[in-house]
Amino acid sequence: METRMSEIVSRKNEHIKIGMIPGHFATNHSHVNCYVDMDSVKCRFKIAKEAARVISSEYVSTPVDTIICLEGTRVLGALIAEQLSENYSHSVNDGRDICVITPELDSNRQMIFRDNTQKMVWNKQVLLLISSASTGRTIERSIECLKYYSGKLAAVTAIFSAIDEAGGGIAVHSLFTAEDLPGYFTLPSAECPMCREKQKVDAIINEHGYSKI
Predict the structure, then answer these.
(1) Which residues lie below 8 Å from residue 15, measured CB to CB, with a gap of 6+?
(2) DSSP letter string over 37-90?
(3) pLDDT tens digits, residue range 113-163?
(4) Rounded CA separation 30/23 (Å)
(5) What is the pTM of this model?
């Protein structure tokens, strides 16, 4: 499938790139007509650093105590923390020692924070960082969990998002949107046109990547 991958360049920064593979893919929540490969942003230092610069520029006036990193975004989260807290950034977070944490996920995909990390969430201003938001359900579950631990949601940001908001009107900022992926759609499996046409599912996808079937 990799031979079908095309490169998508961010409109916000020409050095930030992701890949797109067309096909029929199934997620936990929906079916989509392309796999969005964000490994370059999550794993490549130089690209991740450029991405962190763009993302952090959105939050110059937003106090952030903790960045909660979902779906393999911890490298990016650490670089965002660096950008926000540097003394030359002219940010309200100048000099702040921002925590960067990744929660555990239970069998229902709910976030869990152990006793030793709960202090980094309790009454803290939290930036929720996610790799991909197609339906918003992961974000909504995360927000519910954050409330349980008395965290204060400061903002939600993603590498790619097909939605503009989640959780009852909370804005989702992203490096890439569905407009960057020509013809992209995400639908419940019961409404998937490829399923109706009996087109075989190419792969199952989650935050770790894809598995052909």
Answers:
(1) 46, 47, 50
(2) E-HHHHH-HHHHHHHHHHHHHTTTTS--SEEEE-SS-HHHHHHHHHHHH-TTS-
(3) 999 999 999 999 999 999 998 888 889 889 999 999 999 999 999 999 988
(4) 14
(5) 0.90
**What's the mean per-residue pLDDT of the chain?**
91
pLDDT score of 88:
60
Residue 66 has pLDDT above 90, yes or no: yes
Q: Please, which contacts does 167-175 make with residues 24 or more away whose CB atoms are closer than 8 Å?
A: 167/136, 167/139, 167/140, 167/143, 170/139, 170/143, 172/133, 172/136, 172/139, 173/55, 173/58, 174/133, 175/10, 175/12, 175/16, 175/41, 175/51, 175/54, 175/55
Which two structure tokens, joined as six digits, stand for 13?
């920064």
% of residues, the chain, pLDDT over 90: 67
- The three-state secondary structure class of 197 is coil
Q: Which domain holds residue 6?
A: 2-212
User: Residue 174, Cβ neighbours under 10 Å: how many?
Assistant: 22
Instruction: Output the domain CATH number for residue 96.
Output: 3.40.50.2020
Question: What is the total count of domains within the chain?
Answer: 1
